[in-house]
Write a structure and sequence with these properties.
The structure holds 2 protein chains of 2 kinds. Chain A is α/β, with parallel strands linked by helices. Chain A has a domain of 141 residues: P-loop containing nucleotide triphosphate hydrolases (Rossmann fold). Helix content of chain A is 31%, strand content 23%. Chain A is built from 7 helices and 10 strands. In chain A, the strands form 2 sheets. In chain A, strands 5-6-7-3-8-9-10 form a 7-stranded mixed β-sheet, sandwiched between helices. Chain A has a 3-stranded antiparallel β-sheet with strand order 2-1-4, covered by helices on one side. In chain A, α3 crosses α4. By secondary structure, chain B is mostly helical. Chain B folds into 2 domains: 40 residues; 209 residues, Orthogonal Bundle (MetI-like fold). Helices cover 78% and strands 0% of the residues of chain B. In chain B, α6 packs antiparallel against α8, α8 runs antiparallel to α10 and α9 packs antiparallel against α10. Chain B is globular, with a radius of gyration of 22 Å. Classes of the chains: A alpha/beta, B mainly alpha. Chain B: One of its GO terms (biological process) is cellular response to sulfur starvation. Chain B: Its main location: membrane. Chain B: This is ABC transporter permease subunit.
Chain lengths: 259, 255
């Protein structure tokens, strides 16, 4: 069974008069890397928060088939767009934040935080303050803070959107490396078509108003070459889906297309 | 204009030079009789006056008396002020319900409470403590209230996302540390305001530095008055310096 099942889910901020998104159906299997792609302001981040349980949906349900909790783990963890570290905590304490209250000893938390920092290449920075880090390093800490709780589902909200192109590319590669090691289930929100193609197994297009799933496409094997012709076709297809040029229900409407 | 940046050492040096200059001008003004005699004591007269206050034991006793209600008033005012400010800042219901009360009571200066302090507590330590606590309370209340209101809301979402979404957990993990610069600024202002209220609180006869100043001034012993003015300035500088050390340690994450 899928790890995440979003069933006919809708969200309204005004009691049902208007919807941010509506009739969203989406399943995510274990170990799958799914990108949720859509224009800015379409409600992708909000959907992520509904999946996480931070916001209750107005309609429908979100089911998470998470494994029984082991000590020191959480079922979900979120990486924010702007890192959102707590400036009064050291890098190590920021990473350990999600571990607090899970019944681990201070030394266990510290050890786990160090381990997560090694995974993102910041083993030497644990004692520093967030203000002493670069934007890319801060976001690595954000990733470590999510990974440290060993979540069943890793939610990422445009995590590299605020970074410069060079930093973004290296973090994307690093994320893929980490994903190949850990095989976490990832739900990755982005408005960047290339990023979605580069990272994800599957790309779900969220568009329209109220937004709904406009396309659900599987991407071929890694490593990905963005300049290959099939990728260019895929990118063009995603672009038209985002722009709403495909009428759901018509022949052109594709679900699960392999390219 | 060239932007002059001074190090701590230069600032200290210049500050000392400025002080010495003040005393020199002051001494000259009195010696040259630019002011009528008796209106202003010369700095050189302060030392003997101070020595006689010490040898009589008045100086030490006044400080101890003032400290006893200063410390207690500061403690009560700071704890209640921060507590009330934190609650009003973080619970909208309480905030709305107390808005009117705050607007009514806030403009009343600590000194205006003196008649009630005498009535309720009498001419004693408790009465003086009450007056000090009230003025310290409002400073801390507004500092805490403002600090809580300006906490980055997005950090609450981080707390919720990592299992610390309850009111208490948010208070401990986000509100308090995020507001700490504002809280500490309030405590520091209260520290100074407390010393200012000591004089007001003692005006009506509770023993201490303020009362001793009033006695001296009624005898026209201006040199003694100035000795206690300088004493109070010194005590303020000392408490402020010590608090600054604690503050810098607590806020070293700000750099």
């Amino acid at each position: 069974m899928s790890l995440v099942r979003i069933e006919d889910t809708g969200l309204s901020h005004d009691g049902g008069k208007s919807f941010v998104f509506r009739h969203v159906d989406l399943s995510i299997g274990r170990g799958e890397f799914v990108a949720v792609l859509g224009p800015s302001g379409v409600g992708k981040s909000t959907l992520l928060r509904v999946v996480m349980g931070l916001i209750a949906p107005t309609e429908g349900v979100v089911k998470l088939d998470t494994s029984p909790r082991q000590a020191g783990t959480r079922s979900t963890a979120l990486v924010f767009q702007d890192a959102r570290l707590m400036p009064w905590r050291s890098v190590r304490q920021n990473v350990a934040f999600g571990l607090e209250g899970l019944g681990l000893s201070a030394s266990e938390r510290r050890e786990r935080a160090e381990q997560a920092l090694r995974l993102v290449g910041l083993a030497a920075e644990g004692g520093r303050w967030p203000r002493q880090l670069s934007g890319g390093q801060r976001q690595r800490v954000g990733v470590a803070r999510a990974l440290v709780v060993n979540p069943d589902l890793l939610l990422m909200d445009e995590p590299f959107g605020a970074l410069d192109a060079i930093t973004r590319t290296s973090l994307q590669e690093e994320l893929l490396g980490i994903w190949e090691k850990t095989r976490k289930t990832v739900m990755f929100v982005t408005h960047d078509i290339d990023e979605a193609i580069l990272l994800a197994d599957r790309i779900v297009v969220l568009a329209g108003s109220p937004a709904c799933v406009r396309g659900d496409l599987t991407v071929g094997p890694r490593p990905r070459d963005l300049s290959s012709s099939s990728r260019r076709v895929l990118a063009a297809r995603l672009r038209s889906l985002i722009a709403g040029e495909d009428d759901p229900g018509s022949e052109a409407w594709l679900r699960s297309v392999d390219i | 204009m060239k932007d002059l940046r001074l190090g701590g050492r230069e600032r200290l040096l210049l500050g000392t030079v400025g002080l010495m200059l003040l005393f020199a001008v002051w001494q000259a003004v009195v010696r040259l009789q630019l002011v009528p005699p008796g209106l202003l004591p010369a700095p050189s007269e302060l030392w003997p006056a101070w020595m006689s206050e010490i040898s009589g034991g008045f100086w030490q006793q006044s400080i101890l008396d003032s400290l006893s209600h200063y410390v207690l008033g500061l403690l009560i005012g700071s704890i209640l002020g921060n507590g009330a400010g934190l609650i009003c800042g973080s619970v909208p219901l309480v905030d709305a319900a107390t808005g009117g009360i705050v607007r009514l009571l806030r403009p009343i200066p600590g000194l205006a409470w003196v008649p009630f302090a005498i009535l309720w507590f009498g001419l004693n330590n408790a009465g003086a403590t009450f007056v000090i606590a009230i003025s310290v309370f409002w400073i801390n209340f507004y500092a805490a209230y403002g600090a809580v209101k300006s906490v980055d809301r997005e950090l609450y979402e981080v707390a919720a996302a990592f299992g610390h979404g309850s009111f208490l957990a948010r208070l401990l993990h986000v509100t308090l540390p995020a507001a700490s610069p504002g809280l500490l600024a309030g405590l520091r202002t209260g520290l100074g305001q407390g010393w200012m209220s000591v004089v007001a609180a003692e005006l009506f006869g509770v023993p201490g530095i303020g009362a001793r100043m009033m006695q001296a001034s009624s005898l026209l012993a201006t040199d003694v008055v100035v000795v206690y003015m300088v004493t109070m300035a010194g005590l303020y500088a000392l408490t402020d310096f010590l608090f600054g050390l604690v503050r810098d340690r607590l806020l070293r994450w700000q750099g």
